[in-house]
Amino acid sequence: MSVGLLLSYGTLAVQGALFILPRRLSAKTRKIFVGQLRHFTDGQVKGIQDLEGNEILVKRSGDRLEAFSAVCPHLGCRVHWEQEERHFFCPCHRGIFDENGTATAGPPADAKQVLARVNLDVDSSSGAVYLEVKDTTERSA
């Protein structure tokens, strides 16, 4: 009977502590399939959309893929890739970002801003490309 009582109070104490103490919630993410590696042309940038409709710019260099948000960190305008100049361009204030997403001209460069990176995962055996996005199916409390 003592063991049962001790286990009951221990369980109650743990549940009480979990209820009272706030949990550190990390953002829930999921991976969505965005294509095969062969669908991304070397040296080019392809625009795709995440689950919330935000444009993501995916750049391929050899077998390496990098993904950037198409939102300029300066004022939130849309950037696009200019193939001839090999840079990202923001038309709002003529901001220029190099191939790695680092600002090199305009107000974003003055503020030392960079394009936000988006996580990509490439399955080496199948060549499938997955974009890691915020899970929109979870309801926030």
Chart the SSEs and their pairings.
Blueprint lengths: L1 H19 L8 E8 L8 E5 L5 E7 L2 E6 L10 E3 L4 E4 L4 E3 L5 E3 H5 L6 E2 L1 E3 L5 E7 L7
Antiparallel strand pairs: 1-11, 2-3, 3-4, 4-9, 5-6, 6-7, 7-8, 10-11
Walkthrough of the structure:
It is built from 2 helices and 11 strands; from the N terminus they run αββββββββαβββ. The strands form 3 sheets. Strands 2-3-4-9 form a 4-stranded antiparallel sheet, with no helix packed on it. The radius of gyration is 22 Å and the shape is elongated. It has about 140 residues and is an alpha+beta fold. The mean pLDDT is about 85. The protein starts with a helix and ends in a 7-residue tail after the last strand.
Short description:
The chain is α+β, with helices and mostly antiparallel strands.
What tags apply to this protein structure?
141 residues; alpha+beta; 4-stranded antiparallel β-sheet; 17% helix
**Oligomer description:** single chain
Order of helices and strands: HEEEEEEEEHEEE
Give the overall average pLDDT: 87
| Major sheet size, sense and barrel closure | 4 strands, antiparallel
Q: Judging from the principal axes of the Cα atoms, what is the shape?
A: elongated
Task: Give me the Rg, rounded.
Answer: 22 Å
Count of DSSP-assigned helices? 2
Q: Beta-sheet strand percentage?
A: 35-45%
N/C terminus separation: 40 Å
Task: Tell me how many strands there are.
Answer: 11
Proportion of residues in helical segments = 10-25%
What's the arrangement of strands in the largest beta sheet? 2-3-4-9
Q: Low-confidence parts lasting 5 or more residues at pLDDT below 50? A: none
Structural class: alpha+beta
